């Protein structure tokens, strides 16, 4: 006996206890069925006649669990809770219909079929190695203007003027759920008092996801939103917790109420105290010195915890504090006191993608839960416009988290998602499979065998730096920008570009040109991939060939700018390279990806072209002034 359905044959579904997350997942399953079988999916009140029958099973004690049973004409999905139902629905989409969990971000659709035949009689979920498994959509400059309609921010920060459109955030939530994720930080610097930004939170909650906050958005408040909050009330207060805490306490309380109104029991709170623009508190609040910071941050977290418990009706509301930069240092010195129920989140160093020293050295309290924050994307000294994550390193770091028992929470910085689909997919599998995950198996599943050596050559082309850093596109942008500013007289001469410790700038320049040649050889030797579908070929061309092309050109641009530090006429040779970069990357902005680079502000190569052209036009080499 096997489940069998012909194409064009209508499907129906019955849900015993319908909820918004389940309905949204079923709606997507309907789209998937329409594509593969050209079949409609409609609701029915008759469970016996439904093609797909969803039943809540209160005896299933494991959160997020599900099981599927098949007969020759019906699929029965039993589930423990909303997320169990959603994961079961997406299991049908992936394992029966053939949808890659990241199909949208790869733009790979499965083949259409004349008939669906499933010979297995049952499927069941397996428990995930990590409790909370999430994405942080950070430095998301390309996402916010790819599709319009998200609205505008209320934020005095040049990189964050627009809100990601509902269409894009819904596609992000869908992909995260397809990967068995359950938590999202939907943007950087979310201000839920702005209705356009509040929708980011409510859309995620509607999909059944837990929703949390950037490590500087304690209880949803940043220094930016604090200023806006009081300006709208006709008052001017300085963000000074030590000197005048009452305005901040009121802001925290009001924002916490709004967050709980939007997401209710799906909020995972963030505690802490940081300054403006993701800086230490003492950089902004001059009433707090570095020596005093631990005490004041501890006091702030105690105040925040009291606010949470007044607003959140759960017996123990889930909450985290992220040891990022100074938090890690203060914790290592024993200067932070964190409420007992709050999960401590360790972080990697974004430029190295290695966990910081506190992760390795801090004794664990057996009565506390721990987790980790990891970067695939990292602006500015990491990967942003092209991928750069070592999967073997990621595996090592996640295995270390498991060995230390830090499995309550793990979240990955996805940047703009599209460029980072490989580490995103690997990370999701690691969080679910734990130490059963195998890199060799992942690589075998990821791409055809003929592409594996080219991926290896791509990652081998990065110039290595101390502390497991490498010169990725963020460094190449920073070198270019710093030298351009120097040549325009706006900065001092860069002394050690990208902290290069091994030799002269001339030697670094030669290494960059060698890396460019290695990357260009990937472009030139890229196989035709005739055995793949058109979607699959296009994806690998974009994910590997075109990223190699872009990165190779960036290496040549940075090498040219290093020469220009002493021979300013070399700027005129760099300009065609930037023009080439902008021209080439249009291959990545066609069809469904049209306008992909419209929102670019982090690595702003269109701006850079203008800046370099102005250097040549307005400041000929003989007249250029600089600060020496």
Tell me briefly what this model is:
By secondary structure, the chain is an alpha/beta fold.
Fold and architecture overview:
With 628 residues, this protein is an alpha/beta fold. The protein has 21 helices and 17 strands. It has helices at residues 20-37, 82-96, 103-106, 141-146, 166-178, 195-206, 223-231, 245-263, 281-284, 290-311, 326-332, 357-361, 391-403, 421-433, 439-446, 452-460, 473-487, 505-524, 534-564, 571-584, 605-618, and strands at residues 3-6, 11-15, 41-43, 52-56, 66-70, 75-79, 115-118, 122-124, 132-136, 183-185, 210-211, 269-271, 319-322, 343-349, 354-355, 370-375, 409-413. Strands 9, 10, 11, 12, 13, 14, 15, 16 and 17 form a nine-stranded mixed beta sheet that branches. The relative contact order is 0.08.
Task: Give the helix proportion (percent range).
Answer: 40-55%
Uncertain runs: 622-628
Q: Output mean pLDDT.
A: 95
**How would you sum up the global shape?**
globular
Characterize the main sheet.
9 strands, mixed
Number of E strands: 17
Percentage beta strand: 5-15%
Total helical segments: 21
Q: What is the CA-atom radius of gyration, in angstroms? A: 26 Å
- Assign the structural class, choosing from mainly alpha, mainly beta, alpha/beta, alpha+beta, or little secondary structure: alpha/beta
Distance between the termini: 81 Å
Name some characteristics of this structure:
628 residues, alpha/beta, nine-stranded mixed β-sheet, six-stranded mixed β-sheet, 21 helices, 43% helix, globular
């Amino acid at each position: 006996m096997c489940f069998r359905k012909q194409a064009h044959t209508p499907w129906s579904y019955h849900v015993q206890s319908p909820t918004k997350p389940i309905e949204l997942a079923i709606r997507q399953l309907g789209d998937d069925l329409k594509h593969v079988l050209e079949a409609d999916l409609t609701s029915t009140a008759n469970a016996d006649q439904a093609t797909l029958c969803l039943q809540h099973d209160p005896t299933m004690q494991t959160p997020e669990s599900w099981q599927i049973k098949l007969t020759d004409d019906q699929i029965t999905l039993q589930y423990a809770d909303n997320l169990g139902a959603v994961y079961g629905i997406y299991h049908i989409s992936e394992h029966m219909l053939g949808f890659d969990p990241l199909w949208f971000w790869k733009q790979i659709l499965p083949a259409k079929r004349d008939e669906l035949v499933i010979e297995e009689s049952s499927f069941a979920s397996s428990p995930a190695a990590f409790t909370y498994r999430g994405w942080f959509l950070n430095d998301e400059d390309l996402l916010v203007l790819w599709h319009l309609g998200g609205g505008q921010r209320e934020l005095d920060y040049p990189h964050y003027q627009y809100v990601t459109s509902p269409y894009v955030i819904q596609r992000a939530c869908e992909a995260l759920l397809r990967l068995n994720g359950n938590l999202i930080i939907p943007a950087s610097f979310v201000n839920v008092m702005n209705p356009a930004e509040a929708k980011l939170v409510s859309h995620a909650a509607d999909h059944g996801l837990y929703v949390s906050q950037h490590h500087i958005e304690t209880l949803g408040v940043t220094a930016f939103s604090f200023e806006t909050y009081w300006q709208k009330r006709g008052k001017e207060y300085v963000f000074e917790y030590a000197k005048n805490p009452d305005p901040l306490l009121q802001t925290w309380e009001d924002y916490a109420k709004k967050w709980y109104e939007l997401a209710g029991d799906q909020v995972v709170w963030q505690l802490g105290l940081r300054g403006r623009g993701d800086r230490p508190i003492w950089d902004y609040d001059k009433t707090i010195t570095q020596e005093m910071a631990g005490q004041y941050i501890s006091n702030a977290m105690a105040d925040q915890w009291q606010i949470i418990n007044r607003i959140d009706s759960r017996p123990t509301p889930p909450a985290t504090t992220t040891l990022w930069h100074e938090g890690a240092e203060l914790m290592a010195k024993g200067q932070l006191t964190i409420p007992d129920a709050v999960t401590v989140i360790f972080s990697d160093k974004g430029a190295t993608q290695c966990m910081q020293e506190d992760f390795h050295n801090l004794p664990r309290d057996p009565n506390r839960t721990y987790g980790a924050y990891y970067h695939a994307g990292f602006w500015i000294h990491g990967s942003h416009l092209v991928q750069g994550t070592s999967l073997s390193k990621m595996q090592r770091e996640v295995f270390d988290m498991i060995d230390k028992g830090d499995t309550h929470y793990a979240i990955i910085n996805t940047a703009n998602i599209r460029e980072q689909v490989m580490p995103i997919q690997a990370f999701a599998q690691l969080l679910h499979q734990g130490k059963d995950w195998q890199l060799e198996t992942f690589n075998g599943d990821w791409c055809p065998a003929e592409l594996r050596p080219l991926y290896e050559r791509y990652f081998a082309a990065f110039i290595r730096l101390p502390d497991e850093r490498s010169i990725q596109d963020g460094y190449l942008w920073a070198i270019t920008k710093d030298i351009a500013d120097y040549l325009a007289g706006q900065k001092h001469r860069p002394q050690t570009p990208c902290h290069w410790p091994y030799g002269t700038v001339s030697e670094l320049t030669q290494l960059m040109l060698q890396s460019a040649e290695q990357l260009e050889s990937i472009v030139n030797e890229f196989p035709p991939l005739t055995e793949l579908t058109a979607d699959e070929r296009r994806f690998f061309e974009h994910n590997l060939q075109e990223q190699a092309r872009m990165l190779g050109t960036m290496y040549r641009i940075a090498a040219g700018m290093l020469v220009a530090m002493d021979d300013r006429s070399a700027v005129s040779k760099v300009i065609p390279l930037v023009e080439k970069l902008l021209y080439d990357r249009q291959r990545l902005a066609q069809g469904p990806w049209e306008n992909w680079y419209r929102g670019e502000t982090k690595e702003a190569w269109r701006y850079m072209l203008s800046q370099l052209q102005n250097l040549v036009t307005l400041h000929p080499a003989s007249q250029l002034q600089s600060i020496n």
